[in-house]
Design a protein that fits this description.
21% of the residues lie in helices and 28% in strands. The chain has 949 residues and is α+β, with helices and mostly antiparallel strands. Strands 1, 3, 4, 7, 12 and 14 form a 6-stranded antiparallel sheet that branches. β51 and β52 form a beta hairpin. α2 packs antiparallel against α3 and α4 runs parallel beside α5. The chain binds adenosine monophosphate. The site of adenosine monophosphate has 15 residues, from β48 and β52.
Length: 949
């Protein structure tokens, strides 16, 4: 927080402006800790028509756009003041005025913008002895976006008895941090609650941006850093230590930023500087220019004993191999022939007229003949020993690097690890001290290699992702350096197993539960198998297979239907914690549930930090059945523990009112949240939300729980935009969904979200939940649009039956619409499973390029539904009507002011034109632009002529 004003921190008089003079009064007092404070008070409760103003001094806002105002005040309850009926009020109003500088001490009401009417939560509380004590209220309001340099706050009293104990004004900042070796500066949060400010990181010293992957982060309105993308990596010569790059030590080098670690100098090389990208060869040792720095340096070693014999114009040459071949046997020889003048000695290459037998180069044997030489000429012959790696040197350079590691065997493939073994290379050319295993994710665009080293001929590579293809290569290391990598080997890790494994990583208690369940099942299996086996013994072997295949081996914690409990109270207490009502503080009503009010409040459990919670209450005068149904939701929710499933804190059943206490989801239900922030999120953010919902559903389906009413209205969103599945209960709880209607098959069904087989013959399965999930995807990508718009339920059923499906929402990446269509396969076996959906979305998030949609290029199926989503633009008579149809009427004035009075002129607009209207939200720009393009296409179709753009 960055504090702009804190009235409590000021020791001298505040000297705010108060008008009229008999209204607000500055009074010195003591706060609850007996610290001296300045307060303003007013209490003109006897006189009618009060209008008392109090204005703060000018508050310079710096670069903040969204300002928080925290007020602490006490307010007297009018009932406690005798004889004030009719004149006494219990609220006051908060205003602000933006200015670029101080504006003097006069106060003009009409220049102020109202922020809110402030009321006390409670005017009084009852003290221990029954006396009434004044209660300190705290209220926070947010103002913004602010555009001027500063502002004033003003408090209008209309006849209440108020003491303003403290006024604190602040804004939120994401504080400078280092992430992925990039520094992100202090960043002031955006102007809107939902805005994420994108910030580019600067690489720390001695680091550089990874190619095409520059570091970015997003500063949320809450002052938290979110969604890191891209990274910096340490430059050649430097390696990462914590949040910094440190130079490689002496005797070490790192040749490229891609390498993770500094390596020891290869054989016969050294460096005495820190931060080297390569090592220099020891005296008398060499390395070719084209050699990578990882290659060892080798010594010169000459061919010896070159002898010749001349026969007319033919010369025979013979020599001994170099003394040191370094163990390498791919040495060949080459002859360089030059003809030299006698005096002074100047030589030129012999040229093509001279012949060599068997060849001039590539000689394996240590002799050759040179023919067709000129008579009486002076020739010089040099014999070079050349090896397979380099033929640069005129001296005899020999390499002893080991040959390829080619025979690799996959020993064990698991979800997150792969065990490999291999044979020593055929030509080790020395003692192999180490193997290097290099691997990367096959489908990753910017290939990032990782390496593992092993001293033996096997290794286990850990920390891999499940169901992911990796490519492995291995090379050997000897004193002479690394050999070349062997062939690539592709291995795919196993699919991620059921939730048991996922959740067991989070919660060791579940492992025990899982083992216990598994144990029981095995027992049942054996007993069952035995009995059935006996019973069917005469019928032959098929007897066993039928019942056995009915036994689903769960491998995971399984959902238990609370209805199977005879005593529903036992079910509740089996799965939900009974809370003491005194730990719960109800603060305000936030919604209406089927059984009573839904409130927000706080839960303070002994020894734990207090937390925000939602509290569902059961209204008074309930029947026993209502109580059972109400608590049923807790019995279901209490069985779940997943970050994308709303978490139950506990229940109060032993006091009144009966309550269910749930984690608080600040942003309420997803459908309303999206409608409120129409067009304001990036596709990645939307896909992130969808990923969360799919992960929650994967968990539920792994538990064997079928939701039956998955819809955006039943997803809750918290302040970090995390989506969680909610609304649990038994099938009949759907009856409470206002979207659910009676169908001919009996029971109420939310038709637009429900798979055809569930509508027709109540076949509710995880596959029907997948269908609903597809509809949720559509709701999310269209920012809370109603599926199938205003079509009737009957028409929806008919259209689906005839094969029509919802078209892609505006600007929806084609890949996402394809996934929706897959979820809406008629044959439920063809629909993807939730785990597949999660991994598809993960891939999209990892490769944001797959989510790019050029404006207006979304493919829409040609079906009658098309007309529903694409208004007929030629039918609009004015720009205003058009803007209304695409829900962008808020920009009507922008269009008018810029002179776009007719639809024809709008149809000619480019994206730059749209931006120049002052429409800053990218989502809105896209929505408008894509609508303009459709309009253009429709006009073209209608008039048969092109609109020139
Ligand atoms: P429900 O009875 O679950 O449909 O809840 C009624 C309304 O209360 C919902 O539409 C939400 O707006 C709100 N609500 C329910 N649970 C929570 C929660 N955990 N956090 C915040 N709001 C909630």
């Amino acid at each position: 927080l960055v504090i702009l004003l804190d009235s409590k921190a000021q020791q001298t008089e505040l000297e705010w402006i108060s008008y009229p003079p008999n209204g607000w009064e500055e009074i010195s007092g003591l706060d609850e800790n007996y610290t001296p404070i300045r307060t303003y008070q007013v209490c003109q409760v006897m006189e009618p028509n009060q209008n008392n103003w109090l204005r703060t001094n000018w508050i310079e806002k710096g670069n903040a756009q969204r300002i928080f105002v925290e007020l602490k005040f006490t307010l007297r309850d009018c009932n406690s003041l005798p004889g004030v009926v009719g004149t006494c009020k219990e609220t006051f109003n908060l205003y602000y005025q933006e200015t670029d500088s101080e504006v003097g001490r006069s106060l003009r009401e009409n220049q102020y913008v109202k922020i809110d009417t402030i009321a006390a939560d409670e005017s009084f509380t009852q003290g221990d002895l029954g006396e009434r004590k004044m209660k300190l209220n705290t209220e926070v309001r947010i103002i913004g976006p602010l555009s001027r340099r500063g502002f004033y706050l003003a408090f209008q009293d209309v006849g209440a008895c108020i003491a303003l104990v403290s006024v604190k004004v602040y804004y939120k900042k994401c504080w400078s941090i280092i992430e992925n070796l990039a520094t992100f500066p202090d960043t002031v949060t955006g102007s809107e609650f939902s805005s994420l400010v994108e910030v580019e990181g600067a690489c720390v010293s001695d680091a550089e941006e990874e190619a095409d992957n520059s570091p970015k982060m997003h500063c949320s309105a809450e002052g938290e850093w979110l969604v890191p993308i891209g990274k910096c990596i340490c430059k050649a010569g430097f390696h990462q230590k914590g949040d910094a790059c440190e130079p490689c030590g002496r005797g070490f080098y790192k040749s490229s930023s891609q390498d993770l670690q500094c390596s020891r100098c290869p054989a016969h090389s050294f460096n005495d500087r820190e931060g080297s990208w390569r090592c220099d060869c020891d005296d008398g040792y060499y390395r070719a220019l084209s050699d990578p720095p990882s290659v060892a340096c080798t010594s010169e070693s000459a061919c010896s004993n070159l002898v010749y014999n001349i026969n007319q114009t033919t010369v025979g040459l013979e020599w001994n191999p170099p003394a040191d071949t370094g163990g390498r046997n791919d040495v060949t020889y080459r002859v360089i022939c030059r003809r030299c003048s006698w005096e002074p000695e100047e030589c030129v290459p012999c040229g093509p007229n001279v012949g060599y037998s068997p060849a001039q180069s590539g000689l394996v044997d240590t002799y050759l003949s040179v023919v067709d030489l000129l008579a009486h000429a002076n020739y010089t012959f040099e014999v070079e020993a050349v090896n397979g790696v380099s033929d640069l040197s005129r001296t005899q350079r020999l390499f002893a690097a080991p040959s390829q590691v080619s025979e690799v065997i996959k020993e064990k493939v698991q979800q997150r690890s792969i065990q490999l073994s291999w044979q020593e290379p055929q030509q080790p050319n020395g003692v192999i001290t180490e193997y290097e295993i290099k691997y990367y994710e096959k489908d990753q665009k910017d290939r990032v290699y990782s390496t593992v080293r092993s001293k033996s001929t096997s290794a286990t590579v850990n920390n891999l992702k499940p169901s992911t293809a990796y490519v492995f290569q291995i090379r050997a290391f000897t004193e002479a350096g690394y050999g070349t990598f062997g062939p690539r080997l592709e291995i795919t890790t196993q699919e991620e197993a059921t939730a048991a494994i996922v959740s067991s990583e989070q919660n060791p208690v579940i492992i025990i539960a899982v083992v216990a369940v598994a144990g029981t099942i095995i027992l049942v299996f054996m007993v069952f198998g035995f009995i059935i086996g006996r019973r069917y013994a005469l019928a032959g072997p098929i007897g066993l297979s039928a019942p056995v295949s009915l036994l689903k081996f769960p491998g995971t914690k399984t959902y238990i239907d609370p209805e199977t409990y005879e005593d529903p109270n036992r079910a509740v207490h089996q799965f939900a914690k009974e809370l003491d009502a005194s730990c719960i503080k109800i603060e305000r009503v936030i919604g209406a549930g089927e059984f009573g009010e839904v409130c927000s409040g706080r839960l303070k459990l002994p020894g734990k930090r207090d937390m925000s919670v939602a509290i569902k209450t059961l209204k008074v005068g309930y029947t026993e059945k209502q109580r059972r149904d109400f608590l049923c939701e807790a019995s279901v929710m209490g069985q779940f523990d997943h970050p994308n499933v709303v978490h139950l804190e506990g229940v109060v059943t032993r006091g009144k009112p009966v309550m269910i206490v749930i984690e608080y989801m600040e942003n309420g239900s997803l459908d309303g949240f999206l409608r409120k922030h129409d067009g304001q999120f990036t596709v990645i953010q939307l896909v992130g939300m969808l990923r969360g919902i799919a992960a929650g559903m994967r968990y539920l389906s792994d538990m064997g729980y079928v939701h039956r009413d998955l819809a955006a209205r039943n997803i809750l969103v918290n302040s970090n935009l995390v989506c969680k599945v909610s609304d649990f209960g038994l099938s009949r709880v759907i009856d409470d969904d206002p979207e659910a209607v009676y169908t001919t098959t009996g029971g109420k069904i939310p038709v637009r979200w429900t798979a055809p087989e569930a509508i027709q013959y109540r076949k509710f399965t995880s596959a029907s939940d997948v269908w609903s999930y597809g509809v949720v995807m559509w709701e999310v990508m269209s920012y809370g649009e109603r599926p199938y718009w205003d079509m009737s339920n009957q028409d929806v059923i008919k259209a689906i039956e005839e094969g029509y499906r919802l078209p892609a929402p505006m600007d929806c990446p084609p890949g996402l619409h394809q996934l929706m269509l897959d979820c809406w396969q008629k044959d439920r076996a063809e629909r993807p499973k939730f785990d597949q959906i999660v991994s598809i979305l993960d891939k999209m998030i990892r490769n944001p390029n797959t989510l790019k949609t050029p404006v207006g290029t979304c493919t829409r199926p040609i079906s009658p539904l098309l007309d529903q989503s694409t208004p007929d633009f030629t039918a609009f008579r004015s720009v205003g009507e058009w803007l209304e149809a695409i829900k962008m009427e808020r920009y009507r004035d922008n269009f008018t002011a810029a002179g776009y009075g007719s639809l024809e002129s709008v149809a000619r607009m480019s994206i730059e034109d749209v931006m120049s209207l002052g429409i800053t939200l990218v989502g809105h720009q896209k929505k408008i632009m894509s609508s303009i393009q459709t309009m253009r296409a429709q006009m073209l179709h209608l008039h048969g002529t092109g609109v020139q753009v």
